[in-house]
Each structure stands twice: as C-alpha cells, then as structure tokens.
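Exercise 7. Predict the joint structure of the components listed below.
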Amino acid sequence: MGRNESRSAVLSEAVPLAPALLLLLLVYVGPVVYFLASSFVGSDGSIGLQNYSRLFGSATYVTTIVTTLNLSATTTALCLVIGYPVAYLIATTRAGSSLILLVVLPFWTSYLVRTFAWIILLGRSGTINSTLMSLGLIDRPLELSYNFFAVVTAMAHAMLPLAILTMLSTMQNIGSHYSRAASILGARGAQSFLRIYLPLSMPGVAAAALMVFIICLGFFVNPALLGSRHETVITQIIIDQLSTSLDWGFAGAACVLMLIVSLAIVALYQNVFGMTAVTGMESRESHGRLRSIVSRGSMRLNGALGQVLSGIGKGIEGLMCAAKIEPRAGSTRIILVTFVALIVAFLLGPVLFLIPVSFSTSSFMRWPPEFFTLRWYEGYLLEPIWTSAILRSLGVGLGAAVIATAVGTPAAFALVRSRLPGKPALMSFIIIPMILPHMVLAIALFALYARLGLVGSAVGLIIAHAVLAIPLVVITVSSVLRNYDRRLDQAAAILGARPMRVFRTVTLPLIGTGMISAFIFSFISSFDELTVSLFVTGGLTATLPKQMWEDAINQVSPGLAAVSTVILIGLTVILLLTALYQRRSGSTAIELRG
Amino acid sequence: MTDDSRRVDLGRRRILKVMGASATVPFVTPFIGRAFAAERLVVRDPGGVVNEAATKAFYKPFAQETGVEVVGVTSQLEPLSQIRTIVNSKSYLWDVSVLSAQAQEILGKTGYLDEIDPNAPGIVDILPQARSPWGVGFQIYATILAYSTKTYGDNGPQSWADVFNLKMFPGRRALRKFPIDTLESALMADGVDMNNLYPLDLDRAFKKLDEVKPSVTLWWSNGAQSSQAAASQEVDIVATYNGRVQAAIDDGAPFKIVWNQGIWASDGYAVPKGNPKAKLCHDFLKFCARPDRQAEFSKWVPYSPPNPKAYEFIDKARIDLLPTAPGRVEKMVMENGSYWAANLEKVAARFNEWIVR
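Solution:
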C-alpha cells in the first residue's frame, strides 16, 4: 500500500515534465535520431562504422573541434569576467533596472547585422583603426579583424547580455542581509564580498558559463565572417558537408562526434561544479564511487578556492594599507562604475554604430559613412516582403516563447523539487537542443514537416523554435528556483493558503524575474534564429533573420543597418513601455526583496 | 452530359498542346495565362543583384505575358541537399532553381532533375557549353583577379603567378574558401597551361597554395564578402566573380579587374523532378532563353548572355563590362563542370583539411 502510494506520488511529480519531454521526443529526438542513424550507413549502403573511421582519419575534424572548444571556452571566460561586475552593479543598485535596459539593447538588433558592424569596426580601414590613426596614436593599422581576437570579441558581444542576465537572476535572490550580517561581524567590503557574495552567486556564474559555452559551440556565422582560416569551426564543416558534398552519413557522424564532446563536457561540468548549479538539484545521495570522489574533490576545490579568494582579498587590503589608501567603499564603487560604463559602451558601440551607417549613401557598409540618404529606409521598409517578415518574426517569436515558457517552467519545477530518480540524466536530455547545431534539427525537421505538410507554415516554425527555447527556460527558471527559499511557501501554507494561492501570491512573484528572463530569452532566440528558419520556412514565408541573411549573403548594404535600426527602436519602445507599466503597477518582486 | 463536357475538355487540352508544340509563344501565352491564372512559380536564385536583375528581366515580364506570378527566393549557393530533399519528399518549395554546371550534372545524373528540351525555341540557341541535359544557361560569369589601384597604382598583378608572388606584390589577399576556381588559379600560377588544367594535378595545386597561404587575410565563402572586402579596402588583391568586384568599383572602390586567365562558367535554370507544374516550369525556361530577356538581364548585372543572339540588344558600353567582350574569352579558361561533378566531394574534403592546417 505505502509503497504503491509513494510510487504514484513520484509519478505525479513527473507529470509536469511530461509536456516538455513529449515535445522534445516528437519534434526533436525522433527526427534527429533518424538523421543521426544515417551515420552508420556507409556511402555504399552498407551498415558499419566507415563514416567514423573516415572522420578520425582526417585531421580536419579533430582540428576544428579543438578550435570550436577553444573559441567557446575563451568567449565564456571573457563573458564571465566582464559580465560579473555588470550583473553585480545591477543587482546592488537602485538604478539597476535602467541598466538592464542598456544591457539587453544589443539583443534587439540582429546577431547577423552586429557581426557586420564588427567587420566595419575592426577592419583595416575601419572605425577603430581610422580613429586611432587620425589621433596619431598609431602609424599603421592594427590587425584587429580576420583573427581569433575578432571572433572572440564578436562572440563575447553576442553572449554577454545572456551571461549578465543569467548571473543576475541568481544575484537578485541573494538577500542584502547576508552582507549586512557580515559587516556587523566585522568583515570589510572586500572580505564580505569574497567570502559571502561571491560563493552565493556561484550557481549563477556556473549556469551562465554552461549556457554561454554550449551556445558558443554552435556558432558559425561569426567565425566564418570575422575569422581567418584558423577559426574554422566544426559546425561550418558539417554545414559544408551537408550542403556541398551531399554526404548525409558523414555529416551525421560529425554531428554524433559533436554530441559526444558536448555531453562529455556537460557530464564533467556536472561532476565538478555539480549540476545543482544549473538544475537546482541537491545531490546528497552519492551515485557511485567516482561521483562521490569527484564531488568530495570539488567540495575541497571550492573550499580551497574560497580560501585563495579571501587570501587575495586580504592581500589587496594589505597592499592598500601599505600604500596608505583608505579602503573606502566609495573608491571601489567608482572603479566598479567606471568598469561597468566601459562594458556598457562595448555592448552599445556596434549597435549605435549601425544608426549613422543606415543613412549612408554608399551601397556598402563603410567607414566613414557618406551622408545623407533615406533610400535604405524607403527601399526596405516600404517593401511588403520586409514588413511581412517583421510581423511574421514577431508572431513566431511570441508563440514560441509562450509555448516554451508554459512547457519549460513546470519541467524546471519538477527537476528542482521532485524526488524523481535520474534527474541529471533528464536535465542532460532537456538541454540537448542547445548542444547540437541547429542545422541538424533543421534538416531532420525538414524531412518530417514535408511529410506532415507543415513546411512553410507558421505553426511548424513556432513548434521548432519552442523546442529550441525549452532548455533556455528550464535552465533559467531552475537557477532561480535553486536559490528560492521554500520556507516561504511553507510559511504561507501553514498560515492557511492553498497550494494554488501559495503559487500565485508567493512563488510566482518570487520567480517572476526568472520567468520573464526566460520568456525574453526564448523570444530572442526565436527572433534571431536563422538555420531552422532557412530550411522549414520554405520559399515564401521568410522570417526576418532569413530575409536579412538572404540580403546579407548577397549584398552587404546599409539597408540591413536601416532594418536593424528600425527593429532596435521599435523593440526599445515596447520594452520601455513594459518597464513603465511594471513600475506603475508596482513590482511585487522588488517589494518583497526590499 | 458528363461525357460531353469531358470531350470538350479534352478537345481544349489537345488544342493547347498542339499550340504549345508549334511553340508560337506569343500566341499561346494568353491561353496559358488563363489556364494558370492563380498559378505561381517559385524560383530559387542566388539573390542580391542576380535576383534584382532576374526580377526585371525574367520574373515580372513572364508574369505580364502569362499571368503566372514568379517569385524569386534565395538560398545558399549549391543547394544540392535541399533539391534532393524537395524531390524525395515531393514538397516543391522551389519549382525552378538556379544551379551551377556541376550541380546540374551531379543532380541530373542521379535523377533529381527534369531533362530539358534542347530543341525548344530559345534553348536551341544557347551556347552548348552553357547548356546541360538538365539546365538552361542564363548567365556567364568569370572568376577573375582584381587589385587595388590605391596600393599598386596601375602596376598591379596581371596573372595568377603575380597573385601568388608575395615578394613582388606584398599585400593582403582575399581568395575563395572553396576548391573550385581556387585550385585552377593555383595551377595556372604554377605555370600549367590553361588548356591542360583538367584533370587537376591536386598535389601540385596544394603545394602552390601553401605559398600564398600566409598572405590570404580573407577566405571568403559568399560573394558579398568579397565585394565588401574590396569596397572597404580590407584587402589589396581579390579573386572573385567579375560582378562582385564591379559592384565595389561602381561604388567608388579603387579596384581594377584583370581578365587575363579568368575562369568562366555559366549558371542555368533547372527543374527538380516530379513537379506537377513541370510544364509551366519548362515554359519559364524557354522564356528565359529568349535573346531579348537575356539581354535585359545583362543590363542589370555584368554577366554575359549564353544566347549569342542577345548581343543585338546590348549596347557597346555595356558589352565592355561583360566577360565575353571582344578579346576576353580567348584569354580565359572554361571551368570544367564535369570534372567537378565527379571530384568535388573528394577534393572539397582535402581542401577543408588543408585550410585548417
């Protein structure tokens, strides 16, 4: 009896996961597995491992995988280091919410267009070089483009808002009373930061790292347009294979290899940092010896890291004392604000740069722009093909974000709070759409949709984008839930609130920021998604990124900058209105925190 | 009743067919227009300037004459996989597609394309080199070298050997990140006679490419990149399609085209197999082969008409910008589509391996 009851209880806890898993199985795993299975079919039709022996027999794949990992790791490190102070300032300042608006601003311009902005900014006779030359600071142009530096700069620029928002959602749940308690107990600013704040914010940092890293693995536009031949990534090779060599089996093998590498990294991550960072799972029970050894090791590592950090903190304080600098809160604040201002300038630079370019008379994107014409605005925005693409993308983005949030949030709850066995495995399963290049899904879905008659339909695209966004929602909401103090729910329940009321009046407001971020991420990921759209939208039903991509691969004209500027202004207005509305109706989340 | 109407219907169809066979195009088109009033053809093209020119020369006029709306949609170059998927799944996202010579051969030989009627009016006039059993040429372009006159004055590189000569011509280069054309240019640079390029001596080509590797700043994969690099003077020497450099020159970029040792090729329209609208597709192909249409196309983008009769309709100043202007073709070599159809897969793999090394 009792056993049956507990089993049914566990089963009912699994129910919230069902929609997400079902969607993933039907729209992702099924079609993709079918495609990947082709990797075991050789070019002569025989079943075997010949595609794999070819794969490892060639230096191309090993080299490009190393390049991909290197670019992703560098970008991730850069995003964390420069993003942390920004997130920290937003979380600890009154003006934080206005700062968020600036940070997410680059999100509102197409990733593709920003890449072109970087080409002009970093070029030999580009903005930075020509400015430095005219100031007499350099004699000959710096080598800023077509190298590792350019690719990492543009990738970090693309990923930084995501990193900041992810870290922020954890930081906002760190109560200021901890720091206050530390300072009452005599800890100085640096010490309380290093020993209290930093460790508490680590789950957010780890979640940001995992997310940025995994998304970077799939990047190919930046490396292709801004890199040299040394920055050729594995996704690019897979795409070349698929679109040129027609070698489905071999491309499938390359995809399998990439999947294995990604899963290995996730597994490693899970063991060193603990997947708790991402899923909010508390893995008290040890699964096997290896895991417990690793987790003990990682605990020691964490402890050691803490000591090292506080040691550094003491060292800095010592140095400051020796240099007779009073460690006033004010001076560190000034340094912090200056640093954050620089980062915000980095984030906004390429975005604002596009505005003057959009009025340029030249047919190419050039520096300096020659003024003044409105022809790009007229030529593009009066074209029905562009306006319908904009509307279509907005619709698809909203649809996908609604589905992904509706399906992903319950899944995140189940993964964090239930007692289901095998939660790490489930989590790894859910984030698969983030790890694999979108190209794989694009091809797999094209075949499926063609059979269902869904090619070219908005519904097909919304479902595909929703599936791609589910991992973003699950990870974001989980990272908020992990820091969520369940005693608040229990308190409400004890005071007589029913479960729905607890959810509505306590839980929801507290995780609201996380859900809104999740919704925004989903919307953006759809609004900016290109690869799947390229395949499943067919000929006439282009989304905005597809329309822009077509324009961009054929002519790099200021028209792209014009479209981009209009989107930027439109979405910023929407965002500002939302923010105003929130302020007027009074954000319960902020009140609760205060 | 039913029998009667069926007979009438058959009769009308037969008349149409007879008329179509007699191929008095202007006479038939009003009928086609009525028969397919709500029809639409989706044509995959490489976009950009080619799309603009094709819209003016082919799509809109075809709609005016037949009432069939033609919509050009863009996709990445060489959409081999997409065509295969389209045919296999019978979902005809594209009714007609622009394909390179080697793509026509690869897809045609494996049964993915309709065969064209080589004797149809218009098509019969197309240069045999710009025609395949599966495709009708509408543009001839050339991969040429161009140099910055700002960097080299008028004494820039005049041959592929010069492009590969880093001592004599120091500077940044942009080459295509693809074996087609790049290997040919390397072999010519190494002194291979341009009439004896094929089959390519791959070892020799890659060895020669090793020499130029350090000076290649940009390996471009789509034409717009090469235009942009020339327009923003990111590089000093660029190897790309003549239309791409011309676009930058028209915008004021100080570049000069060298036609010597250019590699010319043609793109054609092809029809993926099994389309219920095949008849209409082939009518479109015939329409695009017409001399007046091909001449109109050349007005908007500097690529030559594969139908020699089109030159009557092109003025002299324009001809001067085309790859087939007098005295040019003799100095150029034709890209061997059959060679690439047979070897692209293998050579591309080797090229990819070489480039990341």
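Discussion. Chain B touches chain A through 57 residues (CB under 8 Å).
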